[in-house]
Amino acid sequence: MIQFADDIVVKAESKGDIQRAVEEIDEMLNTSEMKINSAKTKILVCAKDPKVKADVYIGN
Predict the structure, then answer these.
(1) 22 exposed, middle or buried (CB, 10 Å; 0-12, 13-18, 19+)?
(2) Fewest CB atoms within 10 Å of the CB: 10, 31, 45, 53?
(3) Interatomic CA distance for residues 23 and 6, integer angstroms
(4) Beta-ladder partners of 8
(5) pLDDT tens across 15-25, in order?
(6) Where are the domains of the chain?
(7) Strand pairing partners for 3?
(8) Which of 51, 1, 43 lies closest to 21 in space, CA to CA?
(9) What is the pLDDT of residues 12-60, one digit of tens each?
(10) How far is CA 3 from CA 12, 23, 47, 51, in A?
(11) Max CA-CA distance within the chain?
């Protein structure tokens, strides 16, 4: 995880890893009464197969 000001970059090897990381960050922020802004959240997938997707869910 890379942090700069109020931005966070998460690198992961799999969709499951990125989902777990987002869930952990979401839990951490909730303890400070903060939340992830899904409208500003971006996902970049770097894969040889162009069909690879990473649908990540925030919160419930």
Answers:
(1) buried
(2) 31
(3) 17
(4) 3
(5) 899 899 999 99
(6) 1-59
(7) 8
(8) 1
(9) 888 899 899 999 999 999 999 999 998 998 888 888 888 888 888 888 6
(10) 15, 16, 23, 29
(11) 39
Q: Which amino acid is at 49?
A: D
Q: Which two three-digit tokens encode residue 55?
A: 């649908």
The confidence score (pLDDT) of residue 60 equals 65
Residues whose CB is less than 8 angstroms from the CB of residue 45 and which lie 6 or more positions away in sequence, other chains included: 52, 53, 54
Dump the DSSP string for 1-53. Answer: -EEETTEEE---SSHHHHHHHHHHHHHHHHHTT----TTT-------SSTT--
> How many residues make up the chain in this entry?
60
